[in-house]
Amino acid sequence: MFIRFVVVEPDTNDHRLFTGLIARARILRDDGELDQVEVAVLERVYDWFNRHLPVPPYGDAWPRNCAAWFKSEATEAISAMWELYGLLQRKGVEVRMIKSKHPGKIVYEDDQQVVVQEWSSL
Predict the structure, then answer these.
(1) Which domain holds residue 111?
(2) Helix (H, G, I), strand (E, B) or coil at 30
(3) Where is average pLDDT lowest: 3-12, 73-82, 87-96?
């Protein structure tokens, strides 16, 4: 099973158009919409990801509709995402966790995640 945390975009049910929590949290921080405590939580989560989660080698050769999904056994990474989930939810951002056994064609894989070219339906 694979898991992805997303920000629900208005006027679409297409999961491929949803953005990730990490990017949305960064936007809130950069726009000054987070208080000091929230920024500290965000920085702690980012620091954990930087130390423990490989960065996929995204590049121009990859299809545009690629997205990262966690493997269900990546429990620490998923716990960190729940922190971002709560932070964004408290800021009024609609967030969702989606699951799929086959989210798309795998273009990258490591111990904790896959990057897939997403299928049009899950």
Answers:
(1) 2-118
(2) helix
(3) 3-12
The tokens of 81 are what? 């995402």
State which amino acid sits at residue 107: V
Residue by residue, what is the 3-state secondary structure of 42-81? HHHHHHHHHHHCCCCCCCCCCCCCEEEEEECCCHHHHHHH
| Number of domain units in the chain | 1
pLDDT tens figures, 13-47: 655 556 789 889 999 999 999 999 999 999 999 99
In this structure, the number of other CB atoms found within 10 A of the CB of residue 65 comes to 13
Supply 68's token pair.
Answer: 């990262």
Contacts by residues 106-113 (CB-CB < 8 Å, ≥ 24 positions apart)? 107/62, 107/63, 107/66, 108/56, 108/57, 110/54, 110/56, 111/71, 111/74, 112/53, 112/54, 112/70, 112/71, 112/74, 112/77, 113/53, 113/54, 113/56, 113/68, 113/69, 113/70, 113/71, 113/74, 113/77
CA 122 to chain centre: 17
